[in-house]
Design a protein that fits this description.
alpha/beta; 3 domains; 9-stranded mixed sheet; 3-stranded antiparallel sheet; 8 helices; 16 strands
Length: 298
């Protein structure tokens, strides 16, 4: 059982090593993981199985009040902070405001898109660029090294195919419609060309770090999150979640949602901090959609 559980965590261990987290026999690394703490959630299970004498893992629920999270982080002083990018952004704001006072050596974001604005805010708050992980329930697919040129696919642990809707390979520099994943280390339940609805683009270049693994240079989001809008020239244009994310990530909010309805789009914002002009938000969304060549809806 011990050997099996270790093999199931090889992907995450590789990501940690690429991010500079070295396990030494003489030092215990303090890691905090901010995600789900439900026993049936894969994130909680992964955190529980990775913990050992050398890796002390504190698991906090991402849904806890921010003040409570800040208090516990200040008391524990982790060396490694791992969380959803949206939560990293909130904690960066808490650090800049002086309420959060931690100095982690490494910050990792995963499970959702890490935008350029969130990366900038985290670096501003902590003086270090966060490492991006591309992870799913099935496994950690890719992770950044210290060059931050993209995320290395873990090609010694999995075969990742970027394909179109008909499973034809997409060349580097072009977004695929989905992924086909074959894991090489899961013995209990092997995955063979398992379909994932993620739109991913591979880089045509290799990383200067010397690792031979291909680079993921962008993840647009999941295909089922794509909106279909009428084109100005006829037909339909697919609008990726990243179009909205680049706008919403700059707003003083803790959450957002865009809902497509029969007569237009409804933009929902939560956790607004300070003042926010709705008209400016609407104008930014309209401009972004116009650049995509669509008939901008209400």
């Amino acid at each position: 059982m011990f050997q099996h559980r270790c093999s199931e965590n090889q992907d995450e261990q590789s990501a940690f090593e690429w991010a500079g987290i070295k396990i030494k026999l003489t030092h215990r690394v303090k890691i905090v993981q901010l995600a789900s703490t439900s026993s049936f959630h894969i994130t909680a299970q992964g955190g529980a199985t990775m913990g050992n004498w050398w890796m002390l893992i504190m698991r906090l629920a991402a849904s806890d009040p921010v003040a409570s999270i800040v208090e516990r982080l200040n008391a524990w002083q982790p060396e490694v902070l791992k969380a959803y990018p949206s939560l990293l952004r909130i904690l960066a704001d808490e650090q800049i405001a002086g309420r959060l006072q931690i100095v982690p050596r490494t910050v990792l974001g995963g499970s959702y898109v890490l935008t350029a604005e969130t990366r900038r805010r985290v670096a501003q708050a902590r003086g270090k660029v966060p490492f991006n992980l591309y992870a799913s329930t099935e496994c950690v697919l890719a992770g950044e090294c210290d060059q931050h040129r993209g995320m290395h696919l873990m090609e010694d642990l999995a075969i990742v195919e970027v394909v179109d809707q008909d499973n034809r390979p997409m060349p580097p520099g072009t977004y695929g419609d989905k992924l086909l994943l074959t894991t090489l280390f899961k013995y209990t339940k092997p995955l063979i060309r398992y379909e994932m609805d993620d739109s991913v683009r591979l880089s045509p270049d290799l990383c200067p770090c010397g690792r031979p693994f291909r680079l993921v240079d962008d993840v647009q989001g999941r295909v089922w999150e794509v909106l279909s809008l009428e084109s100005k020239t006829g037909g339909i244009v697919k609008i990726q979640p990243l179009v909205f994310l680049r706008i919403m990530d700059t707003l003083p909010v803790s959450g957002w949602q865009v809902v497509q309805e029969a007569d237009g789009l409804q933009v929902l914002l939560s956790g607004v901090r300070g003042s926010l002009d709705d008209a400016i938000v609407v104008d930014k969304v309209r401009q972004a959609l116009a650049k995509q060549g669509v008939v901008v809806p209400r």
